[in-house]
Amino acid sequence: MKKNFSAWKVLGGLFFVYTISNGIILNTLPAFYPQLMDNFGWNQSEVTRPATLMYMTIAFLAPIVGILLDKFKPNSVIAFGIISLLIALFLYSQVASLQMLTSVYVLFALGLTFGGIVSSMYLITKWFKKHRGLAVGIFLMASSVGGAIFPKIAGWGIQQYDWRVAALIMFGIATVFTLVPLLFLIKNAPTKLGELSDEVEARGQEKNADFEGITLKNAMKMPNFYLLLFVTAILWFCITGVINHQTIYFEKDLQLPKNTVTSILSVFFISSFIGKALFGYLSDKYNKRSMMLLAILNLLLGSTILKYIPLNINFLTFVFGIVYGIGFSGAFTMIQVIIADFYGGVSYGKILGVFTMIDTLAGSAGIGILGKLRAESTSYTTGFDMLIVLCVISALCVIILKKRGE
After folding, report:
1. In a domain, 368, yes or no
2. From CA 183, how far away is CA 193, in angstroms rounded?
3. What DSSP element (H or E) covers 72?
4. How do the residues of the chain divide into helix, strand and coil, expressed in percent and rounded to 5?
5. How many CB atoms lie within 10 A of CB 40?
6. Which residue in 36, 112, 175, 399 is a FRET match for 230, CA 20 to 30 A apart?
7. At 342, is the secondary structure helix, strand, or coil?
């Protein structure tokens, strides 16, 4: 319907940008790790270290971006992030040393923080309320779309040419699919007649004033704040660790060919596409804490399958892709929905920035610790055991959170 058109148009613009930022930077560039290791002689720990630093930088910047979003126009913040991301992506194709790769990933951090999920979720929360869960699920599907498509394109570029040409192809795609949405689709919170959120009444009058919400200071006085923060940190530790190490595990440890690995990644991200849409929809219909618990249990099953893949490689690799893809995407979606549901008021930018900072530090730790364990023991077994235990702990915490909310 026309009254909802502006809100969904903004969502479409954010979808395209997020397809690039997460689809390429977070979900596709790890596919380049084996080639970088072969080209420069780096080990697993060295090749993933720049990504670890990137997450740490994002953690430092996230609260700052949250403050800026509460003070300045979100699309200006996003524009700065997009430009930073495109510059970094071009420089990635020119990398000649580990130091340069590290610098490029710091620039990626700028792009992802200013132009990524913090800014996008801020705008989505302003534009959507009634269908917020669905909108968040659709938005987060963007990284899965990118994760399903771009590893295939990158793999083709690497096989036909080399990794540098493949990186330039990624840069060209990113330029088109970020600048066009930025110029024509992404708008700030609705303030004018005709710019309508999904909260308007049938007569078309706007009803989008900021609702009174909890401040960061008050939120930090409540136990639920820290319990939810702990849960989301654990989940980010597990999710980012697996995403950044699964390609190395499949190619180096299991000796799977590149085309098989890219097929597994495509299944993984197609499944996450389904998971985000499904959990986004369910979060508008059912108890959000229950839906988060369901997603975590799925993540636990996927982590268990990952450990036992060597027993039946051909079968379990694709089962893992489906189960973990749905589990991680469901957990990812519910994290964003619950934070917005709990704290989507006047201090939402600041609170989201704090959550993003802690979650990103946890994600950085997940990448670094899994890499260190693999380098020391030449196996991911210990790391996978740790992921299973953490999923159990997070499930128990959500049960407590659910009891406290009843």
Report:
1. yes
2. 21
3. none
4. 80, 0, 20
5. 14
6. 112
7. helix
- 143 and 271 in contact (C-beta within 8 Å)? no
249 conformational bin, left if phi > 0, alpha if psi -120 to 50, beta if neither:
alpha
The CA distance from 133 to 285, in Å, is: 9
Report yes or no on 199 lying in a domain: no
Residues of the chain with pLDDT under 70: 1-5, 189-213, 311-312, 344-346, 404-406
- The CATH number assigned to the domain holding 106 equals 1.20.1250.20
pLDDT value of position 352: 81
Give me 313's structure tokens: 């490689």
User: Which of 361, 362, 235, 240 shows the shortest CA–CA distance to 299?
Assistant: 235
55 φ, ψ (degrees, to nearest 5): -65, -35
Residue numbers of the domain that contains 98: 2-189+208-405
Closest C-alpha among 390, 208, 141, 404 to residue 287: 404
CA distance 321 to 323: 6
Backbone angles phi, psi at 379, to 5 degrees: -150, 150
Is residue 120 one of the residues assigned to a domain? yes
Looking at the chain, the number of H-run helices and the number of E-run strands are 15, 0
The two tokens of residue 140 are 């987060």
Quick one: which H or E segment has residue 158?
helix 132-160
Number of domains in the chain: 1
Q: Is residue 202 part of a domain?
A: no
Token reading at 222: 């409540």
